[in-house]
Amino acid sequence: xxxxxxxxxxxxxxxxxxxxxxxxxxxxxxxxxxxxxxxxxxxxxxxxxxxxxxxxxxxxxxxxxxxxxxxxxxxxxxxxxxxxxxxxxxxxxxxxxxxxxxxxxxxxxxxxxxxxxxxxxxxxxxxxxxxxxxxxxxxxxxxxxxxxxxxxxxxxxxxxxxxxxxxxxxxxxxxxxxxxxxxxxxxxxxxxxxxxxxxxxxxxxxxxxxxxxxxxxxxxxxxxxxxxxxxxxxxxxxxxxxxxxxxxxxxxxxxxxxxxxxxxxxxxxxxxxxxxxxxxxxxxxxxxxxxxxxxxx
Length: 297
Description:
This protein is an all-alpha fold. The protein has nine helices and no strands.
């Protein structure tokens, strides 16, 4: 990464490509933020945050898996940062990896609390009505404590869904075939960085009972637009090297690249939505006695 040496400056930002690309990125971001502000959160079933979608699978196994996934991803990020330092977060991949780690941290904490609550024995009572009353109060207590964290966990989960598909598809289908050997070499660590994020999230999807809503696409758009804005700010401050060639504004093809990048968000989120739909349509047929089909969206 280098600082401007005079080749770039004010003249770089008055190119006709800049306002066009800004419109391509800023337009979706504006409508996504406007949509999120008007969005009314759907009722969240708190048991879905930590209970698996498999009938005989103890919630402890989901807790263990989420903790294991976090540790593995944290190790990968640690290795990357130990080599590249803060420069590691110059890339969208590391942004996404950190976001997936946030999901698994939230999932681990929520799963631990849910398991603790489900295994906690309520005080015995000889009066049935009193026992039911305590159970209702306990349910209201856990819902109150997990309301914010539950919605945050669902939001991060849906954002990660599109981001991991975008990250891995761009890397394996675009960067590796055309830039391998010129700008980077494929190592085991780089391979893990661009695969474990999706693998762990897909495995969690196969185990969890979380809903997956279409409005999560707005969060995915906002996330990507924040990264592009971050890159533009850095380059406005003097950085000249773009981490991804298709973000370069100098070329006359820049608006087409930016427009294509914006469009590819739709199939990336759609792929994960399709995987989720297949989960709830195929698995109940294959495992009718083991898989718990969702009764709500």
